[in-house]
Amino acid sequence: MKVIEIEGAKELNGTIRISGAKNATVALIPAAILTDEEATICNVPEITDTDALCDILKQLNVNVNRSTESLVINPKDMKNIEIEEKYSKKLRASYYFMGALLGKYKKAVMYFPGGCSIGARPIDLHLKGFEALGAKVTNEGNRYTVEAEELHGANIYLDIASVGATINIMLAAVKANGKTVIDNAAKEPEIVNVATFLNMMGAKITGAGTSTIKIEGVEHLHKCFHEVIPDRIEAGTYIIIAALCGHNLKIDNVIPEHIDSLLSKLEEMGIEMEVGADYVIVFDGKKELHPTNIKTAVYPGFPTDLQQPFTVLLTKAKGRSKVEETIWENRFMHIAYLNKLGANITVKNRTATIDGPSELKGTEVVATDLRAGAAMVAAGLVAEGKTTIADAEHILRGYEQIVEKLKAVGAKITIKEI
Ligand code: EPZ
Question: Of 26, 88, 116, 121, which is best to mutate to test ligand 1, by the most ligand atoms within 8 angstroms of its C-beta?
């Protein structure tokens, strides 16, 4: 098990550079198999979710070449074999191989994906989308077979604007015969990044980033070069950390419009910032903060993935704040640990009520999932004394070099294997 230790209450100053977006990368890697030629993806973050997907590529006999920040994927000798459970359960995004393999070979066999325990996480919308395109879905326990004689375009309405279902249906539809329309599609920037990649390979996708995506099927996809967008959730996490304990801390390589909802909330709380074309500087993270309420929502609403770190900031606001989680039913696992650190938070149904301000004091906590782990790091950095975060491997799934990045701006943080 990996453990992070933080000696908190140190002022952070300098620049933190944001890496490529995890949730775009994890779709781009499976998408790359849709061609038989080489795809080069740069700005790929070094996180364990990237490693897990590269392991799946290798299992499928795909040639993978990793250099600093870029990944060259060549599937010319690829074999469409079953993806074993030990690979699929390592992360949620293994499910993108279902859409990509179906799109390429008209057949995918794999086990149910894993990922953070933040809710039930069904994939019914993905499977319904595949069926609408002409595939037959069968399962024996966790083993799913998705197969089609021919994939044809279809009109698909998503009951929920699901990120995963939108991308997976796009992957399956790019080489289908005819036109597919996805209505009530998710609009997250990662979806636009994946659609751009597919279009650079020769796909014909329009409307990504709006709620109606149109895909005109093509026969052939070719080699391409593509760049991953900066990670808006990593950026948001460090901006929250800067608001907690930064002094002139610059978060660089950010697309500010991707985090508008967060920046508005920070302004409302009284955080003074400079928002540039591709950076955010937080001037002083130690002011008295105003309370606020957030309700998580699909993009461009307040992202569920920032809800947990943001709760830490709310413990510093004077008065009562509320956090309503509408996407995942089990994303309050960090609350018990924040209370252990000295916060005053109660949870009823899907709403957390935070009464602040609270002085946090270091203690032993657990990273129950990726973003809960990020919340523990944020809390540990602002708390007096030593915070020990167990199960820190969850954090490394989504934050490239988090320990090194924080150390470089003055944090006393270490990671060790026990
Ligand atoms: C993506 O998950 C992200 N993961 C999540 O990031 C993020 O929290 C989530 O989108 C919402 O923004 C990746 O991109 C790999 P959804 P995804 O399908 O695609 C329900 C992180 O910390 N639903 O948009 O799995 C579902 O239960 C994470 O980086 C169905 O009911 O999320 C949820 O309530 C974790 N049936 C809602 O839709 C389905 O078939 C939104 O889920 C699919 C989803």
Answer: 121
